[in-house]
Predict the structure.
Amino acid sequence: MAIEVFLRLQGALPFDVFIKISEDKYTKIFNLGDVLDAQRLQNYMHKGAQKLYIQTKDRRQYINSTDKLIRKMIQQEKLSLSEAAFAVEELSEQILFEIYEDGIFDQESLFKAQALAKSYIQLLKKDVNVLTQFLKMSKNETYMVRHSISTAIIGLLIARADNNNNDKILEIICLGGLLHDIGMSFLPSDIGETDRKLTDSEWLEIRKHPHLGLQMIEGIEYFPSEIKEVITQHHEYYNGTGYPKGLRGEEIYYPARVIALADAFSALTTRRGGRSLLTPAQAMNVLNSERGKYDPKLIKAFSSLLSSGTAKAKKAA
Ligand SMILES: [Fe+2]
Ligand SMILES: [Fe+2]
C-alpha cells in the first residue's frame, strides 16, 4: 500500500498496519483504532520503508478508505492533481489486485470502479499529462493490474485523438479498459503473467477469457451492458480475424474497437516478466504492420497523436 495515501487518512485506522522487515517477515506498526502518527510514519520512510502492508482480509476496508479520500480530493478546489492522480492510481491497483489475486469482483467493486472511471475522465479533462504519467507510475507486481490500467488510459488517449469527447463513451472506454480481461482471473496466473511462449493448448484456454469474463460478472445486478460488449468483443478484429465471433468492421462496438487497439499497444509496452519492452514508436510500427486488425481511423488518429508527442519531445531536447 502506498505510504502517501496513508499519510492522508484521517481518524482511527480501520485496520492493523505492518511494515516489511525481511523477505517474509512483517512487523505491526499501528493497531486498528490507532490514529495514524504521521511523524512516526515519516521516520519509517526515512529509514527506507517504501510501502505499508495490511492483511488480505482488510483490503476492502483499505479500498473504502482510499475511495473516500479520492472523492474528497477531487471535490476540493485546491486539489493537487498529481496527488489525486496518485490516489486514483492506488485505488485502481487495489480493485484490480482484488480481481486478479483474490478472485473477487462484486457489486461494490463495480460501483467503486464506475466512480473511478469518472475520476479518470475528470483528470483527463483537467490535465491529460497527469493521466499519461500513470503509465509510468504503476509498480504493482501483477502484470494484469498494470496492463488493465494502461489499457484504460491508452483507450482514453485514442478516443481523445479520435475527437471523441462524449463523457458517456469515455466512461465506457475507461471502465471497459479496466475490466476487459476480467475473465483472465479464471485462468492459471502462469498463463496471464508469463513472458514465455504459450503452448497451443494454453492459447485455446486464453481464447475463452472474453466468455469467462461474463461468468465473472454473472450475478452482479445492473452490470452495464456496454461494458459486457467491451469484454466480449475486445479480441474481435476489424478485418474479421478476431474471436470469439469473427465480427468485422463497424459490426464491432466502437468502444471495443478502441480497447482492441489500446490492449495491443499496452501489451507491447507494459513490463511482463523479463521481456524487453518496445518504445511507443516501435509498438506503433508493430501495430501498423498488422493494421488490418484495427479500425484504420483509430490507428491514424493514435499514430498522429504519438508522432506529435515525439516531435514535441525532440523540440524540447
Ligand atoms: Fe484480452
Ligand atoms: Fe488485455
